[in-house]
Amino acid sequence: MRRKFFYKPIQKNTLSRKLLAKSQQRPFHSVSIPKFEKDALCEDAAIATSRMLAVSDGAGGGGVYAERWSAYLLECLPTKPIMSFEALDAWVNGIWERFYKRCETDVKQRNALFQQKFYEEGAFATLAAAWRTDEDTWQWMAYGDSVVFCYDIANNILHHSFTCLTDFNNPPYLVSLNDELQPAGFHAGCFKCQRPYIIFAATDTLAHYILTMYEVSRKEDFADDLTAATHSLSKNSTFVKNAYALPSIDFYHVIKKLCKSYIKKDFKSLMASLLNKRLIGVDDYSLVSYRKR
Fold first, then answer.
1. Residue 55: closest CA among 283, 290, 286
2. pLDDT digits (tens, 9 = 90+) for 237-287
3. For the chain, what is the largest distance between any 2 Cα atoms, rounded to a whole number of angstroms?
């Protein structure tokens, strides 16, 4: 006699809780949201695995298809680190034509101005990535003002791929579909991490907030950089001054709160809170992270 099987449907809330619990167990997370404007398109892209983290900030101020280009760069990232400008240049030269052909059919259906922007300007994006090459070693590269960080939790020390706060005021170097890369825009290095640690990367506006909070929490160590940043008369100088005005900053708490907000609604709520406090500018926001205990 055949055994009868009875199907018991899984409740949606039960499934959601199971998926959430599973994601919480992973040591790596990624999240991206668009700027807080009506019908805003997120031009950032982010990816996180146990072996690689990367973000790309599509630059909508020039060219077209910024959101497609940033996503495509991460889609094509190699599994081995890009550790020299020559390697980055060779990689871009090897992938740009496929993107060009992928978009061209759509471009031909658009108006003349759109076609002109595509053929003359192309698409632009920053790129920051880190690869885990052994248990506690991460090799990183950055082109533009997206930033890779390594946070030594026990010693409350933040290492990063960027230069200084005032350089966020400068136009970023961008990986271009049409134009040659510039050696000055490329940076690479290696984080030899001490457990427990968090490796993470963020696009420029969020990266500026993170670096500002770290330096203001250790004012004596970064006095020169902070003085230059507050006197730069840029929109970013306002965010630095507002961070100075906070009663105190527990940087570990700052990072813990960020890395726990990997669900979009939580991340969006946190970014809205920082925006209301005028600690961060209006932009797309992306964060990827990997924690090793």
1. 286
2. 999 999 999 999 999 999 999 999 999 999 999 999 999 999 999 999 999
3. 84
Distances (CA, A) of 103 to 94, 124, 169, 176, 291: 16, 14, 32, 15, 37
- Cβ neighbours of residue 219 closer than 8 Å, sequence gap 6 or more: 226
Rounded to two decimals, the pTM is 0.91
Whether residue 209 contacts residue 280, with contact meaning beta carbons closer than 8 Å, is answered with yes
**What angle separates helix 251-260 from helix 204-217, to the nearest 10 degrees?**
150
pLDDT reported for residue 3: 38
Q: What are phi and psi for residue 180, nearest 5 degrees?
A: -70, 145
Sign of CA dihedral 263, 265, 270, 272: positive
CATH class of domain segment(s) 27-292: alpha beta
Sites in the chain below the pLDDT cut of 50: 1-10, 12, 14-23
> What was the pLDDT predicted at 24?
53
What is the domain partition of the chain in residue ranges?
27-292
Q: Which residues on adjacent β-strands are paired with residue 124?
A: 176
CA 219, 249, 162, 44 torsion: positive or negative?
Answer: negative
Residue 175 makes CB contacts below 8 A (sequence gap 6+) with: 56, 69, 73, 92, 124, 125, 126, 127, 143, 144, 181
Q: Which two tokens stand for residue 5?
A: 């099987």
Please tell me the predicted confidence (pLDDT) of residue 26.
81
Tokens standing for 231? Answer: 């006197």
Side by side, the strands of the sheet bearing 147-152 are 28-33, 285-292, 197-202, 147-152, 157-160
The candidate with the shortest Cα–Cα distance to 46, out of 124, 123, 129, is 129
What are the residues whose beta carbons fall under 8 Å from the beta carbon of 150, sequence distance 6 or more? 138, 158, 159, 160, 191, 193, 197, 198, 199
Closest among 153, 107, 279, 105 to 206, alpha carbons compared: 279
